[in-house]
Structure formats: structure tokens, C-alpha cells
Amino acid sequence: MQNIGKNLNRIHAQIAQAAEACQRDPKTILLLAVSKQKPASDIRVAYELGQKHFGENYLQEALQKMQELSDLDICWHFIGAIQSNKTRSIAEAFDWAHCIDRVKIARRLSEQRPAGKPPLNVCIQVNIDHEESKAGIELDAVVELAASIHELPGIRLRGLMTIPAPRPTFDQQRLAFAQLAETLATLKQQGIDCDTLSMGMTQDMDAAIAEGSTLVRIGTAIFGERT
User: Fold this and answer.
1) Consecutive sets of 10 residues in the chain, 227 residues long: mean pLDDT of each?
2) Please, are residues 11 and 31 in contact by the beta-carbon 8 Å criterion?
3) Element (H, E) at 16
């Protein structure tokens, strides 16, 4: 508990410092604790220390943790790749899905979201650096996909998500994130009500915040190395 608490404090301090550097309110930046391959007991510790949002990459692992932690009011984010055979469980169990890259998946999530639940928050994943090893769509395809998702019931398009290729300098990191921020601004101009830039991890969080990130995804720096 002591290490997780210290780590959370350090990350919140870093977020505050990065926000202050670009004259932003730290409260506008959500910390998403990436808890994949970490036990439910670690999530419980972090929750008791005030962390409410957790991100999981692997569906079956996540569902097991949800069962173990059902007494906690956790906001669950699915941040892994979404195949068609996973959509029903994601639609039923999660609050957010960050990796939408085609309308077929968005439509399935829409159709399978239970009627009694609030809309599932979704983000379009953008492959900002055209990397074959990463999912996501090209920047120039975002507007068309966003327009299609925007019309679907049961889900709410919140914004865009990306994982850029590593860059050695702060200024180079900012360039990638700036492209995503500009694309979100374009969506807003076209009447699509988006408010989320899911971008920035441990190594590039400061640059992401400088370019308007509203949600940073941090795992190892909170929970330690995965085994």
C-alpha cells in the first residue's frame, strides 16, 4: 500500500506540474491507472487511496477482477484491441472503450449496450505514426468514422486516443499529440460534441498535457513492473 500511495502522489504531482507549465487546471486531466496483469488487491489499495478509474487490456482478466471488486464503485475502461467476439462483454461490463477503429465494432457495442445503462463512452484510436504493429485508423479517416459513430444510440463518442511511436525530445513528442488535438478541434467544428484526448503515458505525459490531453494512461509508474 505504501508504494502505491507514494507512486500515486508522485504522478499527481507530475500532472499538476505539467499542467501548471502550460497554464492548465490539473483537475481537467484524468489519471487512468492501467492495472493489466496486476492483482485485484492492488486495485483495491489504489481505490482506497482515491483512484477511481482503471484501465484493462485483457477481457477475461478484467471480468474476473470486476467480480472480485464488485463492492467498489470503479469506473472501468477497456483499453485493449476489440474483436467482434468481445463486444458484448465490453458493452455490458465497461464504462469506457478506448480503441474503436471501425464502424462495425462501434455498431456492435451500440446494439449490445444494455438498455438500463448509460451510454458507453468510446474513443477512436488513431495510428498517428502509421505503425504496422499498432491498431488504429489514419488521421484523415477520423472525421468520417466519427460522423458514423456519433449517430449510434447506446454509445457516446467522447474523443480520440493514440499511442505515438517513442520520440527522444519533448518538442518532438508534442508534434504528434498536436495533430490529434487539431483533429479533435475539427470534429467539434463539425458539430460532434467531443471532449476527450486520451493520450500520454509515463514517458510522454508532460508533452501530451501540453497539447491538451484530458486523460493520461499510467501503469508501471503506479503499480510497479509487471512480471
Assistant:
1) 89 98 97 96 97 97 98 98 96 97 97 97 93 87 96 97 94 95 96 96 96 97 86
2) yes
3) helix 2-21
C-beta separation of 45 from 64 below 8 A: no
pLDDT for res 2: 66
> Distance from CA of residue 123 to its chain's centroid?
8
Q: Which residues on neighbouring strands pair with residue 54, listed in sequence order?
A: 33, 76
User: Where are the alpha helices (H) located in 100-169, listed in sequence order?
Assistant: 103-112, 142-150
CATH architecture of the region 2-223: Alpha-Beta Barrel (3.20)
Q: Does pTM surpass 0.85?
A: yes
Residue 215: predicted pLDDT: 98
Task: Output the nine-digit C-alpha cell for 35.
Answer: 492495472
Q: How many C-beta atoms surround the C-beta of residue 137 within 10 A?
A: 16
Task: Spell out the long-range contacts of 185-191 with Cβ–Cβ below 8 A and sequence spacing 24 or more.
Answer: 186/143, 187/142, 187/143, 187/146, 187/160, 190/143, 190/147
Q: Which residue from 128, 125, 164, 127 is spatially nearest to 145, judged by alpha carbons?
A: 125
pLDDT at 118: 97
Q: What is the pLDDT of residue 135?
A: 85
3-state secondary structure of 68: helix
Q: What's CA 41's distance to the chain center, in Å?
A: 22
Torsion of CA 68, 119, 114, 135, to 10 degrees: -70
